[in-house]
């Protein structure tokens, strides 16, 4: 009897009510993790004032969570496969709850940083297990629908979490941001303890400790480069050193895994079209999605003059459509095939980017981008679920923790890469445009002009120093931002166009 034959009858759940309870439990847990990725962004000014922290320190408070999460996903996903998914999930929920409570009560930056790091550890125990529980317990006929719900929460949950966080910051204080994940985690723990069965791999070989360590170093190095490169500079010594360490560790990881009888991740599987195309698709889709958020919030706040809460609310149509499309994707895939569904979603996403690039303007406001946002939400939702299934379907049931972790690492890499790429294009486009427009606004003091070149928010803050040219300076900055916006949208369109061609030619086999 093979390992797969031993595991499948033991873990598959045939009771629809228990499956529904399992799906609710893991999605609540996933929502806590996803909401904590983006939620703290809305409280950056409050954190700076509370702790007397610099902008760099505030960014570290935010980023240390995602860096830790990304670095530990693969080894902790594998530990869940070996030790049992239910105990690892419950342990992760407990760690996450304690860390979130500690962050909410933090009295110094040191405590806050430690709490956020510990939250990342808990999240890395939770996130891969949530998907692994679905793929290892749901029968084949129901798995696609459940993965669609999971993908919808993973894709749209960050926006919903950001909205709830903005509400909490507006009506209370930033400390209440950590009440939300604690409540979600407690609810998930109760539901998981009642409904989630335990499942694990029947291991015949030792745990791949060397592979785990090298994967952690590789992910840490490469994610650090993408997070800190825009801040420190792409040629700064710390950036180049991190890139070198990440590449060497990545090469070492691949070389080690190729020699192991029971590797942490069998890299040979990337020869399969499903795993390769699913990973590339998620990398690009989440990269473009994250990059769009970098562009959207300054547009809402600096160009339209909206509050953080109103700006987040403006994203709700896109988030809700994304979640709806993720749930509908399995039905569409059953009709036209997984590859065609992926390609259709990617094409819709590209159309959405083109619509936003063509129609966005200072005077057009929110309506000038709404059609593009809706097309993006629909397209991203349609592409996420089949891409996730392509990854999890490439590994056997007893290795679903690793498959789920690979899916999550791909998302995290894509997010960091998209923010770095589209953010850099936006900044370069803005600087080029503002230089040209400042020459048409005579009488702006040299110092004020230099401040305006740093960004649209800086320009608006410095505008009173321009005297009678204040309004002209603000207008120049807003129009320059729109120019940078258009360039970043076209860059995203190019990425999606290449991805579309790749999926059409090398996407997963139709099912």
TrEMBL record:
The keyword Membrane applies. It is found in: Cell membrane. The keyword Repeat does not apply. Residues 22-509 form the Major facilitator superfamily (MFS) profile domain. GO terms for cellular component: plasma membrane. The chain crosses the membrane at residues 21-38, 58-76, 88-107, 113-134, 146-168, 174-195, 207-226, 238-258, 279-300, 312-329, 341-360, 488-505. InterPro entries: EmrB-like, MFS, MFS_dom, MFS_trans_sf. SUPFAM superfamilies: MFS general substrate transporter. It comes from the Bacteria. Keywords: Cell membrane, Membrane, Transmembrane, Transmembrane helix, Transport. It is a multi-pass membrane protein. Its main location: membrane. GO terms for molecular function: transmembrane transporter activity. NCBIfam families: efflux_EmrB. This is Drug resistance transporter, EmrB/QacA subfamily. It comes from Kribbella flavida (strain DSM 17836 / JCM 10339 / NBRC 14399). The lineage of its organism: Bacteria, Bacillati, Actinomycetota, Actinomycetes, Propionibacteriales.
């Amino acid at each position: 009897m093979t390992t797969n034959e031993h595991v499948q009858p033991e873990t598959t759940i045939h009771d629809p009510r228990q499956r529904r309870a399992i799906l609710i439990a893991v999605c609540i847990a996933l929502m806590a993790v996803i909401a904590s990725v983006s939620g703290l962004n809305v409280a950056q000014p409050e954190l700076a004032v509370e702790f007397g922290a610099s902008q760099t320190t505030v960014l570290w408070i935010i980023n240390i969570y995602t860096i830790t999460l990304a670095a530990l996903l693969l080894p902790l996903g594998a530990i869940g496969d070996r030790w049992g998914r239910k105990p690892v999930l419950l342990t992760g929920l407990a760690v996450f709850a304690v860390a979130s409570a500690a962050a909410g009560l933090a009295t110094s930056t040191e405590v806050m940083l430690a709490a956020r790091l510990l939250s990342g550890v808990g999240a890395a125990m939770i996130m891969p297990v949530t998907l692994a529980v679905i793929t290892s317990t749901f029968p084949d006929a129901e798995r696609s629908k459940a993965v669609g719900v999971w993908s919808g929460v993973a894709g749209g949950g960050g926006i919903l979490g950001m909205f709830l966080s903005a509400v909490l910051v507006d009506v209370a204080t930033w400390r209440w941001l950590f009440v939300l994940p604690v409540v979600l985690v407690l609810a998930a723990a109760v539901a998981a303890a009642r409904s989630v069965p335990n499942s694990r791999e029947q291991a015949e070989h030792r745990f791949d400790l060397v592979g785990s360590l090298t994967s952690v170093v590789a992910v840490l190095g490469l994610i650090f480069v993408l997070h800190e490169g825009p801040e420190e500079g792409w040629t700064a010594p710390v950036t180049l050193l991190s890139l070198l360490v990440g590449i060497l560790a990545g090469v070492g990881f691949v070389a080690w895994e190729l020699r192991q009888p029971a590797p942490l991740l069998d890299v040979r599987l990337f020869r399969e079209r499903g795993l390769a195309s699913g990973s590339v698709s998620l990398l690009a889709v989440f990269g473009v999605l994250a990059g769009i958020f970098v562009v959207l919030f300054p547009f809402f706040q600096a160009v339209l003059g909206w509050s953080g809460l109103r700006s987040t609310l403006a994203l709700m149509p896109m988030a809700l459509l994304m979640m709806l499309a993720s749930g509908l994707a399995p039905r569409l895939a059953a009709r036209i095939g997984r590859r065609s569904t992926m390609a259709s979603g990617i094409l819709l996403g590209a159309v959405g980017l083109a619509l936003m690039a063509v129609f966005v303007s200072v005077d057009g406001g929110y309506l000038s981008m709404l059609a593009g946002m809706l097309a993006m939400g629909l397209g991203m939702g349609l592409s996420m679920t089949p891409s996730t299934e392509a990854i999890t379907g490439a590994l056997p049931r007893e290795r679903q923790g690793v498959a789920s972790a690979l899916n999550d690492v791909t998302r995290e890499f894509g997010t960091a890469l998209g923010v770095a790429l589209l953010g850099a294009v936006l900044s370069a486009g803005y600087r080029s445009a503002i230089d040209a427009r400042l020459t048409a606004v005579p009488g702006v003091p040299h110092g004020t002009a230099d401040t305006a070149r740093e960004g649209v928010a800086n320009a608006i803050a410095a505008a009173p120093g321009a005297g009678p040219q204040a309004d002209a300076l603000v207008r120049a900055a807003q129009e320059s931002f729109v120019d940078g916006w258009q360039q970043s949208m076209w860059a995203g369109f190019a990425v999606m166009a290449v991805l579309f061609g790749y999926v059409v030619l090398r996407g997963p086999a139709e099912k």
